[in-house]
Amino acid sequence: MNIVVFVGPPGSGKGSVASYIENNDDSFRQLSTGHLLRKEIKSNSELGNMINKSILDGNLVSDDIVSTLISNQITEFGSSVKSVILDGYPRTVEQAELLEKYIKKTGLILKNVIEFKINDGLIISRLEKRVSCSSCGAVFHLENNPPSVKDVCDYCGSTPLVVRSDDQPDVIRQRLKGHHDKSSLLISYYQEKGLLSFVDASQNLSYVRSEVCKLLNVNICK
Ligand code: AMP
After folding, report:
1. What atom of ligand 1 comes closest to residue 91's alpha carbon?
2. In the predicted model, is pLDDT for residue 222 greater than 70?
3. Which of 32, 137, 170, 217 qualifies as a cystine partner to 87, CB 3.0-4.6 A?
4. pTM summary value
């Protein structure tokens, strides 16, 4: 199984591009840590309540929890899945090291790491108009990438689409601060390993999708 890592701030389009690829190429699966964590919160477990607090404070969830959820999900995908796009993991050098160990242990291949580059001003305006499907985790933007039918998820048909509680301006600012503190080290880590490429994520979604498709050598993007 190949692993592809998307690195970038919240609102940079990682999730939108990953779900587009998953829905148009059977050999890819999207693995969004944010979505996995929100699923755990919805289950109302004790673990879910702990996770909820970290997310609402704009903080990262502990490495132990996130890496366990990731490895469980990869195992669940099984050998029929050819490529997994990690959307939102790793977010720190410590997580990248945990991933590297896991990859070595399980014989996976880290194929690409793609950085989604974008400035903060644009992110805040994007996140303020972002709605998500609480069932499958798909994300939409009310102006730039609206669902085909108002308030209905294009991918799983669930309704309504909701504004995530951590997409409120104060939490967004805290999330971005946390992101910048950690991501430059993560980017350097992958740069030094010669694995990093980037896309200009300030461009429109179809441009970003097609640039990512070129990097991944897939022919599904118009
Ligand atoms: P996202 O949907 O990727 O924006 O993630 C939403 C929230 O989930 C983040 O703000 C973090 O609190 C948490 N989260 C997602 N991915 C990770 C990760 N790799 N490590 C720790 N916390 C994470």
Report:
1. 19
2. no
3. 32
4. 0.90
